[in-house]
Specification:
- α7 crosses α9 and α8 crosses α9.
- Among the domains are: about 50 residues, no CATH class; about 90 residues, no CATH class.
- The chain is mainly α.
- The protein is built from ten helices and no strands.
- The longest helix has about 35 residues.
């Protein structure tokens, strides 16, 4: 018999021996409990002590509170284990290989890469052709600049050769600010305006550019023509020694 049972009995003049036993009638549930909080952890139903009926009620209430407090912790632990397990599955290379293998094989991926490279190459080829066509369009004109009759009519210059010679002279040490049109397609409408008095808007329609572009071209070329051609005319008009040398008048005899 344990020390707890002897203390619970508390009978004067009673000395327990090794053969002493406690009957099941002295326990509320009919047998002892291993739970220290349970009323039957020690004999509680004794003839010389009143029975406390509320002992089991208090035990059940305390046990319920403990179970409620423990349950969220257990659920949190279970959820943590589930999340950890899912993370491990996501990081498992074998698992990833299986998922990829069910969708695309390595051969399929290589075919897609080759197809993508071919598409990129085709796009670059189309972009190059587009740029070439744009360059040709910017250099093209509605007029044949090598036709002497048209050059003479629209610009007043005697021939196409004179037109290109004058163009080369002006652009030797100077580059037009506007790059929308080629230099010859800029110089030609400038001469057309000076000879025929055409408006900027009319020239914009003829050369397929904006009104502002024609205006910028005209002022740009007019400035360089005024500077270079005025200098040329001044050189050509400089008197020579032949005309400046005084010739003595003959004297009458």
């Amino acid at each position: 018999m344990g020390h707890i049972c002897i203390t619970a009995l508390k009978r004067d003049g009673w000395l327990p021996t090794s053969n002493s036993r406690v009957c099941s009638i002295h326990f509320i549930t009919g047998r002892p409990s291993d739970d220290p909080l349970h009323p039957d952890y020690a004999p509680s139903r004794l003839p010389h002590r009143p029975v406390k009926a509320k002992g089991m009620e208090r035990y059940n209430r305390s046990k319920g509170r403990i179970s409620v407090a423990i349950q969220p912790e257990e659920e949190e632990v279970e959820m943590t284990e589930v999340i950890h397990s899912e993370c491990n599955n996501d990081q498992d290379p074998k698992h990833q290989n299986i998922l990829i293998g069910t969708d695309l094989s390595m051969g399929d991926i290589e075919d897609l890469q080759k197809e993508n490279a071919a598409i990129i190459k085709h796009i670059k080829s189309l972009e190059a052709k587009l740029q070439e066509l744009q360059d040709q369009t910017s250099k093209s004109t509605v007029y044949d600049l090598h036709d002497d009759k048209k050059i003479k009519f629209f610009t007043g210059l005697p021939s196409a050769a004179v037109f290109f010679t004058l163009l080369t002279y002006l652009t030797t040490a100077w580059t037009p600010k506007t790059s929308t049109l080629s230099p010859e397609n800029q110089f030609f409408p400038v001469l057309m305006k000076l000879r025929l008095g055409l408006t900027h808007r009319h020239l914009a329609y003829q050369f397929k550019c904006s009104y502002g572009t024609v205006s910028a071209i005209f002022h740009d070329w007019l400035e360089i023509m005024s500077h270079r051609l005025q200098y040329t005319l001044a050189i050509s008009r400089r008197p020579t020694q032949e005309y400046t040398t005084a010739v003595p008048e003959p004297t009458l005899q």
